[in-house]
Amino acid sequence: MNGVRCMMMRGGTSKGAYFLAGDLPPSADERDDLLLRVMGTPDPRQIDGIGGAHPLTSKVAVVSRSDGADADVDYLFLQLGVEEATVSDKQNCGNILAGIGPFAVERGLVAAGRERTSVRIRMVNTGGIATATFPTPGGVVDYAGGAAISGVPGTAAPIVLDFGGTEKPREALLPTGNIRDTIDGIEVTCVDNGMPVVVAAASSFGVTGYETSDELAALRDRVQSLRLQAGELMGLGDVSAASVPKTTLVAAPRDGGMICTRTFIPLRVHTSIGVLGAVSVATALLLDGAVGRDLAAFPPQGDPLSVEHPTGRLDVAVELDGTTVRRAGVVRTARKLFDGTVFPRSAA
Predict the structure, then answer these.
(1) Average pLDDT rounded to a whole number, residues 262-273
(2) What is residue 138's three-state secondary structure?
(3) Contacts of 301 (CB under 8 A, 6+ apart)
(4) CA 205, CA 202: separation in Å to the nearest integer?
(5) DSSP per-residue letters across 227-284
(6) pTM of structure
(7) Which domain of life is it from (predicted)?
(8) Backbone angles phi, psi at 74, to 5 degrees
(9) Predicted confidence (pLDDT) per residue in 88-135, tens digit
(10) CA-CA distance, 127 to 296, in Å (whole number)?
(11) What are phi and psi of 171, to 5 degrees?
């Protein structure tokens, strides 16, 4: 059986398989079939593959050298289903993004600097550009460091992700054209600053917003109805088989942050919150009239916007001019877990 060169990395609070595009079949259908067999999908345990039986660990990055002058590498994110044989390219992943710069250096796509390296990354899913900056002492990626992020044990080297460089105008930021919409009698703000998100007050679902993942499982049907309709309003079409939009319930902070969140991805409750999801939620709360703005405790100007989630907080920075996003950024970490050859199960 022919194996495929693969690097498994933890990126932020996610884990995924990283591939060079040239190591995968050129046909999207053949590529997706191979990746499903690599991950062990469909199977709730993914026992015959390298997936971790959870959406946060059933992710793939496909990376190649960029042809454009504005980026060094192109990054395609693919979300693979666990119990269902689905492969979606309808969203970005900011956590897996954290590993793209180091992976590009490890694979020789970008030359490492003597102390630090910055890699310009085109997020193929949406066309946006992010710059990742990370330590490379002596021209080698150093994954060790003192940066801690909620949801990940221990510390690692900081990776600064800067989403500046391309402004996001109102019509892209608010895809329904409105700051507020009403769906199923629930007021929502539909926002997209890197991740399509439906923001709703937890109280509108009859919950506090501080519940555990298991306690919120009963909301799945209502969340699905909400996001199906929101998907149509946001121009995403039928999202019944898609992983976006995410749905984030917000409540007043209770751990020193700006806002407390519980996010469905799309129907399982996230153990934390995605990077771009947090950026989108924080951006929404900066808009006058947005759902949840009245619940937020804003920090002094210039301080990061701290988004509370079930396992801690995620700090983001957003620069807004009216309803136009100027810049956004976040600090993440990543770590190489293995580098070698993965062997997919046989084709049916």
Answers:
(1) 94
(2) helix
(3) none
(4) 6
(5) HHHHHHHTT----TTS--SEEEEEE--SSSSSEEEEEESSSSBPSS--HHHHHHHHHH
(6) 0.79
(7) Bacteria
(8) -105, 135
(9) 998 999 999 999 999 999 999 999 999 999 999 999 998 989 999 999
(10) 31
(11) -65, -25
